[in-house]
Each structure stands twice: as structure tokens, then as C-alpha cells.
Amino acid sequence: MSKISQHNHEDASDRIGWDREQMAQKAAQDIPDGAYVNLGIGIPEKVARYVPEGREVIYHTENGLLGMGPTPEDDEIDFELINAGKKPVSAIAGAAYFHHADSFAMIRGKHIDVCVLGAMQVSAKGDLANWSTGAVDAIPAVGGAMDLVAGVKTIFVITQHTTKQGEPKLIEHCSYPLTGRGVVSRIYTDLAVIKVTERGLEVVELAPGVDFDYVQQRTGCELLRP
């Protein structure tokens, strides 16, 4: 039985689609063996918990750690060992620590294979907006995202399919300031796994109990059927 089916869900009877843990596991399953991976803040951080058995993935943090392990138990937390989101992490055997500038040299030098990020919007062409709404009172939070989408070979996005107000996050054209143009390869939402192709957004997998039309109604661009 997979970790997904074993996971204990709160209010599972009311939920439609995957929860955050399940979204993170779906992304983890698509990361190839031996990959060097950077995880963004939020749901992407959870991906480190779900490396498939028998597969080696080396996780990288922008603040200077290569070889990040799963989130430690409360009695094992070392507050001098944190990720870029200032959350406690663990380190695997053979992990390396280095200067922040060296970490970005790895990113900009295209030495990181996969980056998993959150999103405010993703366009039908794979444009990503994840740092600002562009509103006058918005607090910009670009962090290293622009470096990551420019320097990392493959970009995965994990996000809820819609906003809290029910507005679609996957749309024809991003209305928010872009982080990168045409950079996203795959999108993992609570409703579906979606691949960015030259023809548009193609549904690869639907969450249990979710059909294509349900996803299409909550998407701001035309989806391609699996």
C-alpha cells in the first residue's frame, strides 16, 4: 500500500482531490534517480518526505546545504540547521554546507536538475507568476525564484488548483508579474497532474473521484485530455 493511501486525512469525507501531502508525493514520484533538487517554500518543502524507496535524490537549499533530509522530529531539531524558509531540516550522510553565494552559483551554473515551486498563476504556455500580485500594497517576495527558473533545468509547480476565492490559478495568460516565461514543465494540483506541452496544458492524471470536466470548469484555459 502506498504512502498516499496510508496517510491519515482530516475531514477526508469532505475533501475533493488530493491533500497537500499527496500532492507532494505525486511530485516526488516524478523526480528521477540521482537528481539534484531545490525545494521552494510551502507545499514543495514536503516533497523531501516522499523519496520513493530505492531512489536517491539530493536536495539543495538556497541558503547553503546540499543533502537535505526529511523534516526532523521535535526532539531532533537543530535550529542551526534550517532551509531557505527558515524551517528546521535534517542532513543526510555526506551532506555539504557552503556559502550562500556558492549555492546560487550552483543554481545559475545550471547544476541543479529539478526545482519544485509554488505558484500564484501558471499560463497555458508554462509562464510562472509566483512572487507578487502586482497590487500597489503587495509585498514582493521573489527570493531566489527568478534565479531558480532561469538556471534549473526542470521546473515543477505544486499549487492548489484555485485560489481561496475559487478563481483559477491555471489561466491562458498570467495577469501577475512573471517570474519566468515558458519555464514550467509539470503542475501538481489538488485535482490533477498536468504536463505543459507545445499544444497547451495536458492532463496526465486525475485525482480519485475527480473527472476531466470538473477540472476544466476550474481552469482558466483549455485543457488537453489524457
From TrEMBL:
InterPro entries cross-referenced by the UniProt entry: 3-oxoacid_CoA-transf_B, CoA_trans_fam_I, NagB/RpiA_transferase-like
Statement: the UniProt record of this protein carries the keyword Transferase: yes
Any one Pfam family match given in the protein's UniProt record, by short name: CoA_trans
Keyword entries, A-Z: Transferase
MF terms in GO: CoA-transferase activity
Family in the record: Belongs to the 3-oxoacid CoA-transferase subunit B family.
Protein name: CoA transferase subunit B
Organism: Shewanella canadensis
